[in-house]
Amino acid sequence: MFLISDLCEMLEEYLEYDQVKEIYNAYLFGAEAHKGQHRLSGEPYIYHPIAVARILAEQRMDHKTIIAAILHDVIEDTPTAKEHLSELFGEDVAELVDGVSKLTQIQFESKAEQQAENMRKMMLAMTRDIRVILIKLADRLHNMRTLGHMRPDKRRRIARETLDIYVPIASRLGMNRLRIELEELGFKSMYPMRYAVLDNALKKARGNRKEIVQKIETSIKHRLVQEGFSGDVIGREKHLYSVYEKIKNRVSSLSEVFDVYAFRIVVESVDECYRALGVVHNLYKPVPGKFKDYIAIPKTNGYQSLHTILFGPYGVPIEVQIRTQEMHTVAEKGIAAHWRYKTGDAVGSADHVRAREWLRNILEMQKSAGDSLEFIENLKIDLFPDEIYIFTPEGKIMEMPRGATAVDFAYAVHTDIGNSCVAVKIDRRLAPLRTPLWNGQHVEIVTAPNARPNPAWLNFVITAKARSNIRHFLKNLRQDEAIQLGQRLIDKALTAFNVELKDVPEQRVNDLLEQYGFKTLDDLLADIGLGTRMAQLVARALMPEETAVNDNLADESSSSALMIKGTEGMLVNFAKCCHPIPGDPIIGFLSAGRGIVVHNEMCTNVGDFRKHPEKWIDVQWENDLEGEFQVSLRVDVSNQRGSLATIAATIADMGANIENVIMEEREGNYSTMNFTLSVRDRQHLAKIMRQIHANKKVLRLARS
User: What is the DSSP letter of 496?
Assistant: First the structure.
């Protein structure tokens, strides 16, 4: 059992006497606040905060962080107020404790939403002060160490959250030692049977391996001494979770994983790292393509080492990592390795700079996210462990997650470039925007001033920044279009009363907004544009009662039809069942959340819509239309060689694009081709159909 006296003894090694005394006073306050509270194990609750503080003391964290660790549950689990903590221990400590405290006063619709909102609160607090996440990681580590007292279902839920969120965060901050322990504990609680099987297999293999590891270690040490090195050589065992991940992802079999021998060489300087690499490559032959230089190009979390794989004795592969002592410290402790808060500012080391850049991305991501669940989804996407390195046109190196596309890269450069990208040059050759990028490629984004994000990009982008910015742009665009469409619909409805919206008294509009629960007129117009609220009903509500009930004035059948341009965007959709094009008689159906869906009046589905007269409106095509509209053609042809090519050439000659074609075999004598074309209007389609019909191979032709 770790007591406060043990903690103080540890802290005295690196903190001043007054700071240790302040920490002890925080313990007395916390012990009094948690008096009478016990953990599921039966021990007094205060033992948990002391254990969390110890984990941070091992990282040599500053005294305010240790105080906040001791008090991290007092706001959440006791009547203590944040203001009281601020008076006693300062604003910094109060903010840190508040950052790791869950939201307990707010009622949420679901457990998932509550967890997501708590995580969002903590991550935003972390963007203000990264010590928040360091306290939370230490808290989670001690909870994982004592998870055995909980119900199995709760153990699995906490373990899953740890593996999905906290392990990647620890990895992103470079805290390797803490990450490995969280992985092992999470794996053991999530899959106890799998853990036991692998643990037994590793113990059985360990006896055979010990002699081989010792021989390889001795030979590497001997060769380094011959070359004048004084570095340490350490044989490493693979961690169970990393073994499990390789087997699960079918990278290796169990025997193959255990047959890889891992060694770490720690030397004094960067120059010696490269010289030591030459020594081990001279001792054992390197495996081609398996060398990685993370010293020249560090990982996102600041990790630096040389990695190589060698053909060792007895035909076994050897993994070797070569680094300096400072690199080793950073690899183990990450952002906490050089932490000092004595001056009030974090040291401006490279790992802190990278962490702050990541935090800025999180802040930008949360501004674009619609709700806490979307934010957590984006956060999970952002926590990628593997990176690739891409060259910009100026020769700058940019880190991207593995599998990132050209659109991800465009948003990584700048949000405006992502929003306006239209093409990409990869190694000076044009390529599709959805093209996945690879290490070392030279990437140049082509932009256009009037371009905007395509909703289809959401199907292939993988970075949180790209996904959240695309969603944010489309959401705002959708809102703007909904307001514009709502304005047109309400103006059309008000023509039945011979008035315009601007003529309606402001007080009457405000009364209606209050009645419907909207803050602004734009909110009401957006609701109408999305098809959620009927414009006719709103128009009646805006009119005085004696006017609204006067059938002579409210003869809606006399109102003009809504004009459709075909370029309205996201909230005027053309039905896929009948593909209306300019020149067709059309009808508009108000669909909740989608705006207006335009159908051909001859469409078989219109009969169903007629049962809901309050939801359809008269629409007409604008006189001057520019653009292309999709239409479907069904063509029956005799089975002769070249039929498809001939018809496709005819369509191309008529200035139309083929969007899609599906072939169906019919009894061997003839085939059916279903074309989806882009045409300008009904006249353009008629000319195309006449040319196709002139082909002797065509038996029947019709719109489908």
Answer: G
Burial class (CB in 10 A: 0-12, 13-18, 19+), 286: middle
- Scored b (16 or more CB within 10 A) or e, 589-603 reads bbbeeebbbbbbeeb
Residues in the chain: 704
CA atoms within 13 A on the CB side of 214: 6
Q: How far apart are alpha carbons 294 and 304 in whole angstroms?
A: 5
Other CB atoms within 10 Å distance of the CB of residue 178: 26
- Average pLDDT rounded to a whole number, residues 27-54: 91
Angle at 125 between CA 122 and CA 129, to 5 degrees: 130
How high does pLDDT run on average in the chain?
Answer: 81
Which residues, including other chains, have CB under 8 Å from residue 200's CB and lie 6 or more apart? none
For residue 370, the Cα-to-chain-centroid distance in whole angstroms is: 13
Could you identify the residue written with the tokens 């069942």? 577
Q: Please give, one letter per residue, the 3-state secondary structure of 290-318.
A: CCEECCCCCCCCCCCCEEEEEECHHHCEE
Q: Which of 13, 32, 62, 76 is catalytic?
A: 76
How many other C-beta atoms lie within 10 A of the C-beta of residue 221?
A: 15
The Cα–Cα gap between 172 and 299 comes to 9
Q: What pLDDT does residue 664 have? A: 80
Q: What is the pTM of this model?
A: 0.57
Alpha-carbon gap, residue 449 to 263, rounded angstroms: 54
Q: What is the 3-state secondary structure of 327-384?
A: HHHHHHHHHHCCCCCCCCCCCCCHHHHHHHHHHHHHHHHHHHCCCHHHHHHHHHHHCC
- Nearest C-alpha neighbor of 472 from the set 415, 528, 530: 415
Q: Known catalytic residue: 139?
A: no
Q: CA angle, corner 576, sides to 575 and 582, nearest 5?
A: 60
d(CA 483, CA 468): 22
Q: How far apart are CA 199 and CA 209, in angstroms?
A: 15
How many Cα atoms are found within 13 Å in the side-chain-facing hemisphere of 553?
Answer: 14
pLDDT level of residue 546 (50, 70, 90 thresholds): low
392 has pLDDT over 90? no
H/E stretch holding 66 reads: helix 63-70
Q: Give the span between the Cα atoms of 254 and 204, in whole angstroms.
A: 12
Please give the Cα distance from 98 to 92 (Å, whole number). Answer: 10
CA-to-CA dists, residue 362 to 97, 101, 335, 340, 357, angstroms = 20, 19, 17, 23, 9
Using an 8 Å Cβ cutoff, are 276 and 230 in contact?
A: no
Q: Count CB neighbours of 621 within 10 A.
A: 21
Of 610, 693, 704, 605, the residue nearest 664 (C-alpha): 704
Q: What is the pLDDT of residues 143-200, one digit of tens each?
A: 999 988 888 888 998 998 888 888 888 887 778 889 899 999 999 999 999 999 888 8
Catalytic residue among 77, 444, 491, 556: 77
Q: Name the least confident of 202-216, 470-484, 648-662.
A: 202-216
> Which residue bears the tokens 């004595």?
342
Q: Is 117 a catalytic residue?
A: no
What domains does the chain contain, in order, with CATH numbers? Answer: 4-190 (1.10.3210.10), 194-336 (3.30.460.10), 386-462 (3.10.20.30), 464-560 (no CATH), 629-703 (3.30.70.260)
Q: How far is CA 350 from CA 4, 304, 454, in A?
A: 35, 11, 36
Q: How far is CA 332 from CA 15, 141, 205, in A?
A: 22, 15, 26
